[in-house]
Design a protein that fits this description.
mainly alpha, 2 domains, 70% helix
């Protein structure tokens, strides 16, 4: 992804997604603060909802961090470059996973090594 207009479009898409993620984080934080000290039993439906909201909040916070890293890489000119081999990451991979920092071959190799070491 080296074309200036492609990079600008990606920046706009990430910035837009960032705003949506921030809205969701705010909504979840607000819902979790309604009764933060409420003692709930694990079998209580409100407990389940609260745990689901906490998990969603963590996921959105992780996504926000990924987006911020991608935006920073766009600023520094390192966006779309594999951190392992230095080759460009396939633009289609970046469209699907804008936070990708590894090309498919390097990611596959790392996953293969993890599986081998887990044995």
């Amino acid at each position: 992804m080296s074309n200036h207009s492609e990079l600008q479009a990606e920046r706009e898409r990430l910035t837009s997604e960032r705003q949506l993620v921030l809205v969701e984080i705010g909504r979840l934080r607000e819902s979790l603060q309604i009764e933060p000290e409420l003692e709930l039993d694990e079998g209580d439906p409100e407990y389940v909802v609260r745990e689901q909201n906490l998990a969603l909040l963590r996921n959105f916070e992780e996504r926000l961090q990924e987006i911020d890293i991608a935006l920073e890489e766009l600023d520094t000119g390192s966006y779309g470059i594999c951190k392992r081999c230095g080759q460009p990451i396939d633009p289609e991979r970046l469209r699907i996973m804008p936070e990708a920092t590894l090309c498919v071959p390097c990611k596959s190799e790392l996953e293969k090594r993890r599986r081998m070491s887990a044995r």
